[in-house]
C-alpha cells in the first residue's frame, strides 16, 4: 500500500474536517484554520519513540490513544479548548493491522474531545509518532507556569504514580497480582487528559502544568518559572488503592518521580477553594489540595512524621535516563 | 547534556518569541499565539528521516536549513505569511557539534523569513526531525490545489531537476565534474522555499502546489483536486545549464520525476500573465509558463517533436520506492 492510499484509508474522514475552525484539511499543502474571533491559539508538540515513550508490547489502539492523549494533556494544562491536530508518523512498513488499531484509538479520543485531524505526514523509517495540537482560549486566559504566588494552594487532579508502578512491573523490578496490574497498566497505556478540568480552571488557577515527567520535576518547573517554592505533604498526595498497598519507598518513588501521569498540578488563591472544587465537580474530575506555595525557592516534601525528605527529586530526562 | 540544557543552549533565544503573534513560547506547555485579526491560519507538518529525506553525509547546518525549508515551501504553496514553527527532534545522543550546526542553519533560514521557533520537543531515538509550520493569510486568499480551470496557464518557478541530478551522482549512477556537482548539490541540500512568490500570488494564482515529489506527480495532485488535465511541453521546462548538458533521458527523468525541487507550480488565467510576471519580478523569482490546463483529465507531456511521452509518470512514494 502506498503513502497516499494509506492516508486515504486510515487517516481521511470525508466531511469531518469541514465546518468549525478547519475549512480545508488533508489534501492541500496546508490546512486552513479559521480562528474564533478574538481568541488566542495554544499550540504544543510531543514526539513518541518506541522503547522510550511506549513499549513494543502496547496494543496499537492504546498507542493511538496515548499519542494524542499526551498532547491533549498539554492543551489541558493551558486551559485550551482543543481544535485541530497534525500527525506525523514514521513506520518501518505500512502494517495494516497496526494502522487500523492505531487510527481507531486515535480517532476515538479525538472525537471524545472534539479535535479534528487536519493534516500531517507519513513516511517510512523507525517507528516515530509526532503530534502537534492546536487549541484556543479567550485572550489572556491561558494557564501558564509563571503565575503562582506565595500563600496560594497547590492542587493536583486524579491520582499519581500508577503509570510508573506499571512500568516497574514491566521492567520486572516489582510484581503485582493480575487484576491490580491491569488497573495500573490502564493508567500507563490509556491516560485520560484533563481537558475539561483545564478549561474549567480558566480564570481560577494562577498557574498550571501537566505531570508528564513526575510531580517533583514538573512542579519544579512551575515553581522556577513563578520564582517561588512550595511545601507538600507526602500523605496528601492522592494515590490508587493499588499503589497505597505498596511499600512506602515504592509509593514515594511513584508519587514524586513517576511520570506519565498526565494529571494537572496547579495553583490557586486560598479564597478560590470553593471554585476549584466546583470546577472538579462540574467536570467529573477529582481534585486534591496537596500543599502551599512559599516565597523560598525549591520544593520541600514532608513525610508522615513532618520530616523533610532529603532525597534529590529528579524528573525524567530523555538524555540522562 | 540533559534535555532541558540542550533546549536552553541551542533552541531558546530569549526575547525573540515576544511580540508579533507569539506571546509565550518555549518554557510553557503550549505556545500562545495571537492571530492577526480576521486572518486565517495555514498549517503544515513534514517529517524528515535519515536515508530517506537526507543523506548521512549532509552537513548539520544544511540539514537544519532543509528541515525548515521543506516546511516553508508548503506555506509558500498556500501563499501564507510565515509566523511560527514547532520542532520535534529525536537524536541517538545529544551531539553538540550536530546541534550547533543544525540550529545555526535552522535559525538562519527562520530569520530570513521572519518565522519564530515557538516550541517543540526533543527526545532520544533514531534521528528524526519533524517541523510543524504555521502561517497566516487574509480570509479566502489561501492558494489551494482545487482552483485550476480549463484554459488557464500552468507556471513554474525557478529550475527543476538539479536536486535529483545530485542524488543520482551520490548514488553513483551518474558523474559530474566537481564544480557542476557542487552547483546541483546546493539545490539538493539548500533549497530556497518560494515564500515571497507565494504571497505575491495571492489573488492572482488560481491553484498552487510545491514540487517536492516531482513535477509530474505534484502537478498530478493539483489536476486531480481541480478535476482538470494539462498539457506541457518538455522543452519549456526550466533547467540549469548543468542539467541542460545531460543526455535527454536524464533531463526528462530529473525534470518530470525528480523531486526535492521546492519550486512552485501554479495556474493562473491567461489574462493574468502580466501580473504573474510582476509577482516574479517583485520577489526576484524567475517564473516560466510551461503549459495549459485542459478539460480532459490527466497530464500530457510532449517532446521536442510534438509527440506525447508514453511513459508512466510516477511521483516519489515513501512506501513504494
From TrEMBL, chains A, B:
NCBIfam families given in the database record: thiL (TIGR01379)
UniProt xrefs under Pfam families: AIRS, AIRS_C
Annotated keywords: ATP-binding, Kinase, Magnesium, Metal-binding, Nucleotide-binding, Thiamine biosynthesis, Transferase
Protein name: Thiamine-monophosphate kinase
Residues where Mg(2+) 5 binds: 213
Assigned EC number: 2.7.4.16
Native source organism of the sequence: Roseateles amylovorans
Keyword Kinase listed: yes
Family: Belongs to the thiamine-monophosphate kinase family.
Amino acid at each position: 500500500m502506498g503513502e497516499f492510499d494509506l492516508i486515504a484509508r486510515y487517516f481521511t474522514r470525508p466531511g469531518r474536517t469541514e465546518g468549525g475552525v478547519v475549512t480545508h484539511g488533508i489534501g492541500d499543502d496546508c490546512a486552513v484554520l479559521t480562528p474564533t474571533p478574538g481568541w488566542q491559539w495554544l499550540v504544543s508538540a510531543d514526539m513518541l519513540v518506541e522503547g522510550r515513550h511506549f513499549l513494543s508490547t502496547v496494543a496499537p489502539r492504546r498507542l493511538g490513544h496515548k499519542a494524542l492523549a499526551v498532547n491533549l494533556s498539554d492543551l489541558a494544562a493551558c486551559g485550551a479548548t482543543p481544535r485541530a491536530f497534525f500527525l506525523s508518523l514514521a513506520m518501518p512498513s505500512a502494517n495494516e493491522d497496526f494502522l487500523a488499531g492505531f487510527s481507531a484509538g486515535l480517532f476515538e479520543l479525538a472525537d471524545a474531545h472534539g479535535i479534528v485531524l487536519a493534516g500531517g505526514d507519513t513516511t517510512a523509517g523507525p517507528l516515530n509518532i509526532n503530534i502537534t495540537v492546536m487549541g484556543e482560549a479567550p485572550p489572556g486566559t491561558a494557564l501558564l507556569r509563571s503565575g503562582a504566588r506565595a500563600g496560594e494552594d497547590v492542587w493536583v487532579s486524579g491520582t499519581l504514580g500508577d503509570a510508573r508502578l506499571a512500568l516497574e512491573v514491566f521492567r520486572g523490578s516489582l510484581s503485582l497480582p493480575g487484576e491490580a496490574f491491569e488497573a495500573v497498566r490502564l493508567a500507563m497505556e490509556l491516560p485520560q487528559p484533563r481537558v475539561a478540568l483545564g478549561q474549567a480552571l480558566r480564570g481560577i488557577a494562577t498557574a498550571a502544568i501537566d505531570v508528564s515527567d513526575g510531580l517533583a520535576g514538573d512542579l519544579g518547573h512551575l515553581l522556577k518559572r513563578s520564582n517561588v517554592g512550595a511545601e507538600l505533604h507526602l500523605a496528601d498526595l492522592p494515590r490508587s488503592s493499588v499503589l497505597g498497598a505498596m511499600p512506602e519507598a515504592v509509593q514515594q518513588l511513584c508519587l514524586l518521580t513517576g511520570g506519565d501521569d498526565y494529571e494537572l498540578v496547579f495553583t490557586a488563591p486560598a479564597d478560590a477553594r470553593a471554585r476549584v472544587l466546583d470546577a472538579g465537580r462540574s467536570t467529573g474530575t477529582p481534585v486534591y489540595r496537596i500543599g502551599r506555595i512559599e516565597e523560598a525557592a525549591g520544593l520541600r516534601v514532608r513525610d508522615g512524621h513532618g520530616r523533610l525528605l532529603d532525597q534529590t527529586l529528579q524528573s525524567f530526562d530523555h538524555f540522562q535516563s
